[in-house]
Amino acid sequence: MCILFFKFDPRPVSKNAYRLILAANRDEYYHRPSKSADFWDNSSEILSGLDMEEGKEGGSWLGISKKGKMAALTNYMQPQINKHAKGRGALVTNFLTSEMDSYSYLKKVALEGHLYNGFNLIAADLSQLPDPAMEDQGKDYVLPFLNKYAALCVRCPGYGTRANTVILVDGEGHVTFTERTMLNADITQWKTSTYQFQLQI
Predict the structure, then answer these.
(1) Stretch (H or E) spanning 94
(2) Which domain of life is it from (predicted)?
(3) Which domain holds residue 121?
């Protein structure tokens, strides 16, 4: 299961404090094609990864625009999967390019304010169980695997955490977006990319 932690303070008191600290894991099938986080086009307006699965290209799971919009998407376990359904990532794409002013917040909020602690947190081998809501979602679908799927950093055959992302927005609107992406479906090979820009709001 994907997971997202964040801390939001729109008016930080301290000069060194952050408006936003976000740490997220993308959990997905290793074979599902995607592009690592980057700016979408020459305008460099939106920074996100892109889903490249045939028929669902162009969606995303986490992104931020220079105008201060941000969207994230996590998995939801369901017993029956509609293989013809539109890619879930299209929801993130729609948010980033529309006038919506909020996104779906997760219940769990915890994080300290710098990259090292953020990556330590989301790469940890910690289970989220017991969690009645998660157990209810997974009872007909992945119950035998639920304990592995419920870890912060998922490691299952063919499925698991493929990207770790930490986004920091400081009190002056400066954004640091750092992503670690698994290479070649190999949990020992990772690429780290960092982008920095100023919000235009």
Answers:
(1) helix 90-97
(2) Eukaryota
(3) 3-125
